Amino acid sequence: MIVLGLHGGVTVNQHEPAAALAINGRIVALCEEERYLRVKSCYGMLPEHSIRACLKMAGIRWEQVDLVVAPGITYDFFADRIRDYLRHLFGSCPRVELVHHQEAHVAAAFYGSGYDEALCLTLDASGDGACGMIASASKGDGIKVLETIPTARSIGYFYTMMTYYLGFTDGDEYKVMGLAPYGEPSVDVSRIIRPAPGGWDFDPHFLRSDPPTRSPFEPTYSPRLAELLGQPNRTPGTPLTQFHKDVARSTQAAFEECLMTLAAEMKAANSGIGNFCYAGGVALNCAANRRLMYSGLFDNVYVSPVASDRGLALGCAYLGAVMSGDSPWQLWDAYLGSSYSDDDIRKELVANSIPFEEVPDGREAAAEMLAQDMILGWYQGRSEAGARALGNRSIVAPCGDEKMRDKVNARIKYREEFRPFAPSALYEDAEAYFRTDGRDLPTMSFTVDALPGKADGIRAVVHADGTARLQTVKSSTNELYYDLISKYKALSDVPVILNTSFNLKGQPIVETPRDAIMTFFGCGLDALVMGNFVVRKPKP
What we know:
- By secondary structure, the protein is α/β, with parallel strands linked by helices.
- Among the domains are: 2-102 and 312-323, 2-Layer Sandwich (Nucleotidyltransferase, domain 5), CATH 3.30.420; 342-536, Carbamoyltransferase, C-terminal domain (DHBP synthase).
- It has 17 helices and 22 strands.
- The protein has helices at 33-37, 48-58, 78-90, 101-113, 155-165, 173-179, 223-229, 242-269, 286-294, 312-323, 342-351, 362-371, 402-413, 427-430, 452-455, 479-492, 513-521; strands at residues 2-7, 18-23, 26-32, 67-71, 95-99, 117-127, 130-138, 142-150, 193-196, 199-202, 275-279, 300-303, 357-358, 376-379, 393-397, 422-426, 447-449, 467-469, 471-473, 496-501, 527-530, 533-536.
- Helix 4 packs across helix 10 (312-323) and helix 12 (362-371) runs parallel beside helix 16.
- 51% of the residues are buried.
- The model has no long low-confidence stretch (mean pLDDT 95).
């Protein structure tokens, strides 16, 4: 059976539209609309380009799709609106089924994990009237919902509220997480949220009460929050004080304690299950995921590589496969987006009169430039699904000197100086630099402790608290990227490089060769490697 999973902006606040295609239970494509439209998060938009890209990659016609599945089961007329949209685009529409937003998150995590059975948790701001779901799942019996957490208890809204208070905006929660290590947990937020039976108690009265048409970019906190904390909110763009850093640390600490309280209760009630699957936008908090991983509560912890709403399409495709009688396949990797041939790249370069060199081996050329302390755009293969670049749409650099971190922040990414960068390390060498306990961590879903004796040698990718958001790289998962790091290791004796997403602040990750070229010439990158084509900037 051919199943299309969809998520899109039928309401103004829905974001991260995407499409996923499952054929006989196997996910063959997962595309995000922001990559094609070049609009970050794509609030209120529907996934036309993503649908067409999925069909193209699978080599199928629209008429071959058997079933469309989308979240939104609690919305009136939602299915009718989806049918009308698809009929408008393609002239026809197969059967449409709606599922619960949170169950789609559960499905993305559980079926993607490949586990035979697991406890499952989803946490986000809100979806289908809930902010989370607790479930048990097995390959034989499917997903059994144990509890649906109502939006009034939303820990996602808590974190977003504090994000706005600190002068950031929707989607900037990762900035609070990155700022937290520079502060102390000295700001009392227990009147807002605190650990309690069931995970936590949250007082939603600190949130603004607004109509559903509120713009997602308006602040979410009420005046009561500033009164409680004793200072007005930080005006966006103004300097960060120690108080702001302490608020960030206190927010992160409170969130982690609440999460761990809930996880411990889940384990106590289901002591025989050793696997834990986790999704929802809150699961992007890789620092809290570190607590889960190191806690010993579970034998294995799996966080979906598309944990936020961009992964709803994946979960819907999985649920549709189950409805159709197919057995869902494990998600082996996140390289599920579009790819572009050498001819596509060459045509784009020639059409724009850009000088380039075609080299025998782009990996060799890139490794040599890294060994010369150059910062590169690295563009290869299929684009990654999810919020993190994993070596196909990446900016890469050597990581031995922390000045490189500052250079990439200031000259390339144009973002806040406190923001950390991730290390990509050869899997077999990672344990010599980080506390992995032998785990394979291919999707940057967790921070790990850098080993003190090795941290000084990779200072550009170790954060202020001694942790790093590690990506382990295997040849079996991404041969080109593995070879790049291996060749760099042969030249430098360091099996680790700095990896950050190939985009500028506020923009989506690059999708097409044209996107890569425009971004390259719009920032301070030294060179661009696309396939075996190398582009350098003319010397002044």
